[in-house]
Amino acid sequence: MPMAGSKRLFKSVTSENEGMDFKSGGSGKSASGRSHNVNPSQLPASPENRDIDTEIYHVGSGVKPPRAIFTPEPPYSNAARYEKFQGVVVVSITIDRTGNVSKVSLVTPLGLGLDQNAIAAVKKWSFEPAMLEGKPVAVEMNIEVAFNLY
User: Which fold, 56-147?
Assistant: First the structure.
């Protein structure tokens, strides 16, 4: 643990500055006394300059969730119906800026053909897009698709 008033040293991970130690104090010089320049394009995107047109967000921290408009139920597979099999399939989806499902991947499978039916149905879903600062953005989220026999 550093003592009060001491400065920590950080190792650079960029190939241009590999091996240089940078002080956290902002002196503009490395531990070896050499000056260093930081390329602004290497810095993380600030809220003012991030590209909301291409970035994929998660709901929360100012991102309002998408609202489902069209969500057809997936069909039960014959094998699952015969076995009286019930459960939940979890899929990860990406909803683009227009509200369409652009990517679907299986997170928690259930089996007996229900996974494939859930994926096929979710691909047809449509949403009002998620919003950030009044603008539509793409979001990634998990969806639970329940299969119940009544």
Answer: TolA/TonB C-terminal domain (3.30.2420)
